[in-house]
Amino acid sequence: MQTFVRIVEANSFTKAAETLNLPRAALTATMQNLEAFLGTRLLQRTTRRLSLTPDGADYFRQCVDILGAVEAAEAGFRGASAGQPKGKLRIDLPGTLGRRMVMPRIGEFCAAYPEVELVLSLSDRIVDLVQEGIDCALRVGQLQDSSLVGRQIGSMRFLTCAAPGYLQRHGVPRTLDDLAAHKAVVHFSGRTGRAFDWDFQVGGKVVKADMAGAISVNDADAYLSCALQGMGLAQVGAYQARPHLQAGELVEVLQAWPPVPMPISLLYPQGRMAAPKLRVFADWLSSLFQQEADLQLWEV
Fold it and tell me: Tell me, what DSSP letter sits at residue 184?
């Protein structure tokens, strides 16, 4: 089961063999014996890729659940390190949130759980957790329907702001109707290519505004940089904007109608949370966000 799951996660016999420290031939023999024992084909193999058969997909989900339960059961019977989570944990973090909020304090987690080996990737690309062997991914925004499990651990607040120079040139918007006379920095998703909506909470309802701009970016840090340079209004993550508001480099506008917060969720494959190493990381990450007012869990 471990061999089969690792092959699927790595999408490669060769890569799986490297992570298991076994010769590739041993994995081939194991899979042949497993398929013969089960009486069904689990993997479709071509020269370029691997894919799961319908039976293989069903067996894979059950294997993940079973192996997670085994790891949880064994966690309390490991001598001097009894109860201590251990093993490699592969995590994908969004670039800006990962750099600004998680990485500055990741040493605290490593000190608390020295037997967990972290493998962190920071990116805003679409990641296939199962195919790439990633245990969990942190995501901001509404989750798309998928076979993954999502646990909300925070909420990202936003605020509408601009550089003082921009407001001096174009005036300060006092109402949502005033936005028609303003330009925005356009922020679009690196995953979908779609521009993020401009929305506002008005009397318990959500009101959207169409905003045009002279520049579009797909990175949160680049988005903030454009706003600081006076290139237009922006709806920036509040945790990013706070230092610049305090320094007078940005000015918040339309405070009476704040943007809608976005959920921050941890995604992981079915059954994976049974693993102690993932469970303690999820709890630590949730605690980290609860210490930051602009990221605390807020049902939306």
Answer: B
Q: Looking at the DSSP assignment, which residues form a beta bridge with residue 186?
A: 216
> What pLDDT is stored for residue 78 in this prediction?
57
pLDDT of 79:
46
Q: What is the CA radius of gyration of the chain?
A: 23
In contact, 83 and 116? CB cutoff 8 Å: no
Closest CA to 241 of 256, 260, 228, 258: 228
3-state secondary structure of 11: coil
Cβ-in-10-Å burial (0-12, 13-18, 19+) of 161 comes to: buried
Both tokens of 117, joined, read 């080996």
Which region holds residue 86: left if phi is over 0, alpha if psi is between -120 and 50, else beta?
beta
Q: Taking a C-beta distance cutoff of 8 angstroms, is the pair 183, 232 a contact?
A: yes
pTM: 0.72
Length of the chain in residues, anyone? 300
Cα 283 to Cα 273: distance, rounded to the nearest angstrom: 11
Listed in sequence order, the DSSP H helices in the chain are 2-10, 13-20, 24-38, 54-74, 95-97, 106-112, 164-170, 220-228, 238-246, 276-290
- Of 215, 264, 279, which Cα lies nearest the Cα of 96? 264
Which pLDDT value is given to residue 299? 52
Beta-bridged to residue 116, according to DSSP, are 87
Q: Helix, strand, or coil here: 250?
A: coil
Token pair 């989750």 is at which residue? 143
